[in-house]
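Technical annex, item 7. During the second reporting period the consortium partners agreed on a shared format for inverse folding records so that results from different sites could be compared directly. Each record opens with the tokenized structure and is followed by the designed sequence. A conforming record, contributed by the partner at site C, is shown below for reference.
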């Protein structure tokens, strides 16, 4: 996973705006590497979900919610899914 320094809030706004526009036009938030976003954010799969973290450093992290999701999976397995009676 790569990471890139983000210097200020203006850059954060530009990054989010660029990702949203790219997703609307191309169905891909990072269709190519650019000076603003020098990372490729691959689509999520059943096996892997990658999240782009936009903070002081721009980075990609895999499965950041894995622990939280595993707790819910254990609860649903033990007690059933209340939303699917």
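Designed sequence (site C submission):
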């Amino acid at each position: 996973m790569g990471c890139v320094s983000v210097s200020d809030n203006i850059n954060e706004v530009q990054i989010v705006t660029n990702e949203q526009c790219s997703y609307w036009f191309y169905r891909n938030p990072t269709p190519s590497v650019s000076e603003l976003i020098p990372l490729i954010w691959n689509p999520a799969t059943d096996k892997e979900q990658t999240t782009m973290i936009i903070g002081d450093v721009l980075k990609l992290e895999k499965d950041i919610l894995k622990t939280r999701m595993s707790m819910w999976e254990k609860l649903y397995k033990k007690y059933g899914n209340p939303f699917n009676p």
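Helices lie at 9-26, 66-79. The chain has one domain: 3-79. All partners now use this format for quarterly exchanges.
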